[in-house]
């Protein structure tokens, strides 16, 4: 198995931009939902710039920020209305997004090496589980965790699940992600971070930050060979 993973007991993957090439899809979808509910172009542009720079934040936090007037005027629209519209548009489109290069090969090799694999993502948990199950990808993962729980708390859920299974010591975890939210969550819980750069919406800044923090950088999962 790869030397990149040989020092880790648990490997955790983000979903968008790591498992699926879906970052552009998600960014476009946010814009379409806001436009469909009458948000001004200027507000949408300001929101989209923030969302791209902070990819990995959950839709719950992002839409609430819009409604609170962070990117323009406050709007009297129920949060649930935006979430339901986004979820309805997201589910079918998510099924059509391509896998990232060498995804299943990398997952199969990691699984064959006996390492438990997890997903921790900003995507809605039940929706993501349904999509990955429909795509035949959920079989690789011990558990799939998503929003509205934060990424840091979901990484803690991974540690808790391992402890419930009888693990007596705190295992060493690697979190493979493509967003600042991923690196920050890993650092918050004491996990190591591996930046997958190919589809990141913040590649130059996060690559510099990851290297400055002593974290490795890969282009895509084929480099886990």
Q: How would you describe this structure to a colleague?
A:
With 225 residues, this protein is of the alpha/beta class. It has two domains: 138 residues, HAD superfamily/HAD-like (Rossmann fold, 3-Layer(aba) Sandwich), CATH 3.40.50.1000; 73 residues. It has nine helices and six strands. A six-stranded parallel sheet has the order 3-2-1-4-5-6, with helices on both faces. Strand 2, helix 6 and strand 3 form a beta-alpha-beta unit. Helix 1 runs antiparallel to helix 2, helix 4 packs parallel to helix 6 and helix 7 packs across helix 8. It is globular and about 50 Å long. The model has no long low-confidence stretch (mean pLDDT 93).
- CATH architecture annotation of the largest domain: 3-Layer(aba) Sandwich
Helix coverage percent? 40-55%
Topology pattern, helix = H, strand = E: EHHHHHEHEHEHEHE
Gyration radius over CA? 17 Å
Low-confidence stretches: none
Question: Which helices and strands, and how do they pair?
Answer:
Blueprint: E1 10-13, H1 23-36, H2 41-53, H3 59-67, H4 79-96, H5 103-112, E2 117-124, H6 125-134, E3 143-147, H7 151-164, E4 173-177, H8 180-189, E5 192-196, H9 203-212, E6 216-218
């Amino acid at each position: 198995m790869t030397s990149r993973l040989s020092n880790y007991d648990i490997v955790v993957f983000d979903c968008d931009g790591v498992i699926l090439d879906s970052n552009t899809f998600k960014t476009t979808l946010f814009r379409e939902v806001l436009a469909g509910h009458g948000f001004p172009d200027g507000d949408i542009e300001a929101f989209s710039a923030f969302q791209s720079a902070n990819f990995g934040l959950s839709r719950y936090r992002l839409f609430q920020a819009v409604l609170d007037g962070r990117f323009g005027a406050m709007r009297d629209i129920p949060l649930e209305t935006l979430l339901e519209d986004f979820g309805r548009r997201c589910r079918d489109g998510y099924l059509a997004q391509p896998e990232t290069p060498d995804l299943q090969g990398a997952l199969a090799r990691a699984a064959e090496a006996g390492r438990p694999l997890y997903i921790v993502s900003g995507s809605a948990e039940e929706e993501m589980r349904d999509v990955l199950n429909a795509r035949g990808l959920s079989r690789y993962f011990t558990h799939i965790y998503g929003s509205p729980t934060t990424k840091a708390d979901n990484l803690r859920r991974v540690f808790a699940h391992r402890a419930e299974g009888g693990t007596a010591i705190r295992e060493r975890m690697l979190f493979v992600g493509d967003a600042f939210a991923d690196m920050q969550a890993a650092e918050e819980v004491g996990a190591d971070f591996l930046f997958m750069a190919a589809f990141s919406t913040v590649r130059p800044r996060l690559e510099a930050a990851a290297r400055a923090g002593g974290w490795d950088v890969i282009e895509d999962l084929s480099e886990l060979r």
